[in-house]
Amino acid sequence: MNRYVALLGFIVVVFGGGLLIGYLTLPGEWYAGLAKPFFNPPNWIFGPVWSVLYVLIALAGWRVWSSDPHGAAMRLWVAQLVLNFLWSPTFFGLQQMGLALLVILALLAAILGFMATAAKSDRVAAWLFAPYVAWVAFATLLNAALWWLN
Q1: For the chain, first and last CA: distance in Å?
Q2: Which string of b and e fits 63-73 if b means at least 16 CB within 10 Å?
Q3: Closest Cα partner for 114 from 41, 39, 64?
Q4: Domain count of the chain?
Q5: Which pTM does this prediction carry?
Q6: For residue 18, what is the domain's CATH number?
Q7: Which residues form a coiled coil (predicted)?
Q8: CA angle 47, 53, 57 (to 5 degrees)
Q9: In 37-129, which ranges are continuous DSSP H helix?
Q10: What percent of the chain is modeled with pLDDT above 90?
Q11: pLDDT confidence tier of residue 3, bands split at 50, 70 and 90
Q12: CA–CA distance, 64 with 66 (Å, rounded to integer)
């Protein structure tokens, strides 16, 4: 039973943290006024995509924590979450697209590091990050394009 309470805790922290940061750093008029690349997705897509990703991130973290709570994979999981939560305030809050690009590049590296490290002991946890790495790679391209265009 304690394992499932821990899983719920991971979901609350990841999903709740993501929702709170998203609410506190809504894109607003500044973002609406930016020149956008042709591949910029519609705004409505971000909420559903991040909702699914946050559940996968929480599940992967919980799996790694369950087997090795102080290991390298868990440290990388925490690092990616901190960087994930840092990106929106940097991009939308501070309106610093160049600095946000550095944050998201570090996030991408942390995600890949987590996947490589977790795969050694929990392949499922590593693969749970596959959609996340794909989305963040796309978001990195989008961040770079927005920075370049504006």
Answers
A1: 51
A2: bbbeeeeebbb
A3: 64
A4: 1
A5: 0.94
A6: 1.20.1260.100
A7: none
A8: 140
A9: 46-67, 72-88, 97-118, 123-128
A10: 94
A11: confident
A12: 5
d(CA 1, CA 116): 30
What sign results for the dihedral spanned by CA atoms 46, 114, 116, 108?
positive
- Neighbour tally for 150: CB within 10 Å: 11
Q: Which amino acid is at 24?
A: L
List the domain range (segments joined by +) for residue 22.
2-149
- Per the CB < 8 A criterion, the answer to whether 69 and 2 are in contact is no
Buried b (16+ CB within 10 A) or exposed e, 13-33: ebbeebeebbeebeeeeeeee
Amino acid letter for position 101: L
